[in-house]
Every structure is written in C-alpha cells, then in structure tokens.
Sequence to fold (125 residues):
Amino acid sequence: QVQLVESGGGLVQPGGSLRLSCAASGRTSSTNVMGWFRQAPGKAREFVAGIRWSGAGTSYVDSVTGRFTISRDNAKNTVYLQMNSLKPEDTAVYYCAAGALLAGLGRRDSKYDYWGPGTQVTVSS
Fold:
C-alpha cells in the first residue's frame, strides 16, 4: 500500500556531499515515521536517521550526527538525507523506510513496515 523509491546515490570523494531523496507513494497517510538505514558489505543494517511527518524532532546515529541532516517535504511526500563531510565508512546501500509508529523516531528496523529498494553510496578517492 506504500511504495518508497530512493534516489541520489552515487560516487563521491571523501569530504564531499550527497543528497538522497525518498519519494513515497500510495497510502502514505498510513505512515507516521520515516527513516534512513544503511547496510555495508558484511555488516548488519544500521539506523541512520529518522523523522516524523509531523513535529520537529529528528534522530541520528552518533556516527553521522553533525554531518547528516534528515528533512521532509510533506507536499511532495518526500524525505531527504543531506550528507556532508562524507567518509569512506559511510559507504553502504542506503534504504528509506516508513512505519506507523505512533510515537518516537523508530531507531529499530522492526518498527518499519515499508522499505525502498535502496541506493548505493560510495565514498572513495
């Protein structure tokens, strides 16, 4: 009932910036929280950032705090992840997720009901 599509991934040099977009369609009114996760080869999927469709709160994993910013455009049903000062350790497939969590910012992937196919981010010189 909800479809998510990520875009904006690619190759960037260390210290560079990249902006990811997540376009949501379908019954988006059934979702309350949006999150970004990432998964690097050989590692478990990791929460990166979360935001609700309403309210001012955001949440970030410690490793990206101060470098990444999650934001939303409700009219476009789109969530963004602005990534600055990128490091090679940020290399991963980035996934957008949506959930109906009534409160909080959903740091656990089990709280999300819908997932996009992912977009590759590679940070390398």
Notes: The CA atoms of residues 2 and 26 lie 5 Å apart. The mean pLDDT is 96.
